[in-house]
Amino acid sequence: MAEQSTSSNVNITDAVLHQSPVINDAENVTIYYMQPPSTSSSDEDEWNSIRKLMKLCISYLEKEGKLRFQGVSAKQEIPVVHPAIHELNYYDKDTIPVDERYDPKGQNELFKNKIIREVCFQDLLDEKDKFISIVASAGSGKTVFSLRLAKAFSLPQRLCIHLKFMDANYEHPLTLRQLLLENMFPGHSEEFYTACFSWMQKNADKIVLILDGLDHPGWTGSSAIFLGGNFTKNKLQCLCPCQRPVLYLPEPARPQVTYALGDLSLEDTKELFLAFADEDLWKKINTTSSQMLSMCRNPLMLQMIISSKIHPSEDIGDASTPTRLFATVMENLKGSRNIRFPKTMDELVLKLQVLAFAATNNHKVILTDKQLKDVEINPTTVHDIIVQLHAPKHSVNCNLFDGSPTKFYFCHQTFQEHLTASYVVYAMPLEEFQDFVETSLFQEHWTVVRRFVCGLLFDLESKAVSGDLQMKKEILKKYLIQQLAIISEKIMESPPGDEALTDKLLNLYACVGEGKDSSIATKAAEHFPTTIELPQPMNSNLVPGFCFVLKHVTKQLDGLSLGLCRLDANSFHEIASVIKEMKPGQIGKMSIYGNRLQPSNIDDIIGLLRVVRVELMMWNCFDGDDGRWRSANQDEINKIQSALNKIQTRLEVLVDLLTKLHSQK
Predict the structure, then answer these.
(1) Chain-centre distance of CA 638, in angstroms?
(2) Is 497 left (phi over 0), alpha (psi -120 to 50) or beta?
(3) CB 212 within 8 A of CB 146
(4) I need a labelling partner for 182 at 20 to 30 A (CA). Which of 9, 72, 395, 550 fits?
(5) What is the largest CA-CA distance in the chain?
(6) Average of pLDDT values for 66-80?
(7) What is the mean pLDDT of the chain?
(8) What is the DSSP string of 558-607?
């Protein structure tokens, strides 16, 4: 949308409403329109015109419905992939929180904990004559998804119009006919528009509207909503939820059904990845930075990762960690045509860092327009990074379209966290930094930010540090090693299975892994607990840091439990690859039951036999065809027994609850 001055900026939604249609009854969310009189059209003229309009709609959908990535070109035809779809019970209470609280454990979503069930694409098509909102975070594929919905709804005898509001730049009031027809399909005759609109007034039950991006700056409403409305009695029923649900919709204005788009499946993620990059890059990420694969399940993050790998920054090197990835993304944004900040990019980044730190420090992910104005940022110049969220007035009886202070959030929570860490590293005064590290940084609230801070200060492979940065690095290193020693000692003193303590330790290991500093990893390994049970389940994002520290462990371990961690084949392979390089007999007892391994992991299991000296418990460690755990089959048992016979060991392998394997030597 073109940038406009404050004095001349027209609220587009208000412009539509002030002329035609006009809201008379906001409580019933009914829009009355007053269309100028026109010459009548015959039934034949109307049907001929509407068939032409249907063809225009299909042509538009074929053109727009292709997925495009900025910075990378498709190598093959783009596959049809669908994000997970969940039905929500969003408006289950009258009181809805004003702002989202920052949650370091996952992406904040207003619909979190409101999921009723997972549904399929067909379920949305089966909804008849309902107001349906589709909500999702930025980059989740709402536009592509809504275009596919439009194509699915475009059947003979039915008209589906997809309105893409993010491309709109209207400066004058619009009539309803102009909104639906003339601006969407320009260049046709007055007779064509008259005949089409006349047919639409008479056949509302055959019309579906998809309003994509209605929450874009200058508009009020939803990112994707389709309306099974009717024009009868000069009425068009209309509802405008937001990209995230509108915070304070009165009861009559709420959508009848709300769906949320989630992540892609791992299979769809790989299929989409390979459409833009080759198999070698997928394998490289899988091998060197597997935590990135889980990030790829969001299309926006997948785009950033591929672009950063294909167009790396010379100053940063290979984007093999989240810290390097986001640093590369910020470098690449300097060349974005959508960033129109009047000063230098470095000045803009500093302002964004200030915003991000203030929000995270105050436990918020929402920014106000006042906060943006205080640092002299116009949101229209940075909409690749900051997204606008419409928030009506707090009263549940408010006018749905009443103007109110706009709010903003970073397009992805991880942007906020990386920018917060960048503020701590590059902008926070040294004395304040020392106090912050000592009193705050190792609290749970700063878990993800801390990982980025460590990545920025410890990763000498990306760039050298000096002066205040070198002093900050030494301060951070001192307190990190102290925390590693304290938490490790508590784990050794506590009863087995204290997941809260183990989770803290693994998050500290993630900091070590993010920094890629072997000297710090060696210190962490000195304090590695001799007996440790990993969390049930274990977050796959914590696996790389755990492996980076484990690689430096030289002492004997009494026990290592991966039981019930629900590790997938990739995560288990990453851990097993480190263990098989350890000294013979270095681990006493080890359990791997309760994971989601594949037949290919049998070689990983065989690699453990030389290192585990007493007992390996591996029942129900494979993912069965029926979705349940299974134990090793006879062929897999034979391979393990054969491998046992080739090594000198007293190891017992429990392949199921009744069967133990021993070396036959």
Answers:
(1) 43
(2) left
(3) yes
(4) 9
(5) 99
(6) 69
(7) 78
(8) EEEE-TT---BHHHHHHHHHHHTTSPTT-EEEEE--S-BB-GGGHHHHHH
- DSSP codes of every residue in 366-392: -EEHHHHHHTT--GGG-TTTEEEE---
Contact 381, 339 (CB under 8 A): yes
Instruction: Select 12-261's CATH number: 1.20.120, 2.40.160, 3.10.450, 3.40.50.
Output: 3.40.50
pTM: 0.76
| pLDDT 10s digits, 114-148 | 778 888 888 877 776 667 777 777 677 777 787 88
Q: 511-540 burial string, b = 16+ CB within 10 Å, else e?
A: bbbbbbbeebbebbbebbbbebbbbeebbb
Sequence letter at residue 646 = K
The 3-class secondary structure across 192-208, one letter per residue, is HHHHHHHHHHHCHHHEE
Q: Residues spanned by CATH 3.80.10.10 within the chain?
A: 556-665
pLDDT tens figures, 411-420: 778 889 999 9
Among candidate residues 309, 311, 327, the one with its CA nearest the CA of residue 514 = 327
Cα 209 to the chain's mean position, in Å? 27
In the structure encoding, which two tokens stand for residue 162, read together? 């997809």
Tokens of 491: 């784990």
Sign of CA dihedral 450, 451, 453, 459: positive
What's the rounded mean pLDDT across residues 160-179? 69
Q: CATH number of the domain at 556-665, please?
A: 3.80.10.10
Q: Identify whether the C-beta of residue 456 lies closer than 8 Å to the C-beta of residue 463.
A: no
Residue 408 · residue 387 · CB < 8 Å = yes
Q: For residue 531, give the 3-state DSSP assignment.
A: strand
12-26, pLDDT tens digit by residue?
Answer: 233 333 333 333 333
- CA distance from start to end of the chain: 75
Which is nearest to 119 in space by CA: 106, 132, 137, 131? Answer: 132
**pLDDT score at 173:** 63
CB 111 within 8 A of CB 100: no
What SS3 state is found at 31? Answer: strand
Angle (CA) 307-311-315 rounded to 5° is: 120
